[in-house]
Amino acid sequence: MNHKRKICFVTPTLQMGGMERVVSLLSNHAAKNGYDVYIICLINKKSYYYLDDRVNVLEPAFEYKKGLLNKTKVFYHVSSCLFSVRPSVVLSFSEVFNPLSIISAKLANIPVYISDRSNPKKELSLLTQILRKLTYPLAKGMISQTELAKTISLNKGYNNNITVIPNPLREIDDTIERIKGPIIISVGRLVSTKNYKELIDIFFEIEDEKKWQLWILGDGPDRSDLQEHINELKLNDRVKLFGAVKDVDSYLSKASIFAFSSISEGFPNALSEAIAYPLPCIAYDCPAGPADLIKNEENGFLIPIHDRDSFKLHLIKLMRNNLLRESFMSSYKLHRKSYNIDSISERYLNFLLN
Question: What domain range is 85 assigned to?
Fold first, then answer.
């Protein structure tokens, strides 16, 4: 029966990012289980993530630029694809483009669900806010990544049918030998909300632990500024920016602590993966996600946001106490089970199709 069910995901891109990774994982799971899967991309960019050969990617023929004209082109692209494919259901990702997907699906008489992916407290443009208020109630349902996001969406009257489904974990490579050294690691885009400059400053202030290094994986517009800051602090031999890497697990295997300094999240995939790897974690309690993943002093330290002194003190505790680090990793198998790709993907499919 499944092979007759067509599922369509709408996403801005399939480039490197948390939302894009989730779309690829869901698509691969659905294709593997006999569904006809289509991904409508709104911006024509090459996929960063592996996609099953059975997944159909529909990209626009134009180069996206900001402005009303390009929004009209995107609307036409989505509408044309939906009228052509005629899927059983549509799931659209991204606060900015969800309103366009909802209108397109409604015109095509196709059930549409939506999922916001960024910090639920993030201030978006006035136009986006108005469009969400007008169109979100027209969606058949909404998927939130965290309880906080669900509560905020309900309070704003976006939709009455909202479920919370966290992001699935990717497969962790357990074949790599773990050689844990005095290394603190972090993973994420080099943008201001990841707050890496503060993490580097905190690391710099821990003066009596010179044997430790800080590794940061990821790329982004802040890279040159961060490298300049590292140079100014004369930390080139201890703080390393590795850029975007494919083999993340080979770097995690060498680290002893995962530090997460982000001040704004939708759902922090990198933190979830670190807990599952496993690594002992320390994170700011930013909106939204860290509080869903870390039970303070059980599997990590959850630090009040912007409490830099507390972050530093608890990071020092982890650096100096191997037994504490080991205790924080003891429940990683339970975390893996809770966020397993197949079980999370099935929760998505059940909500969309049942």
Answer: 2-168+340-353
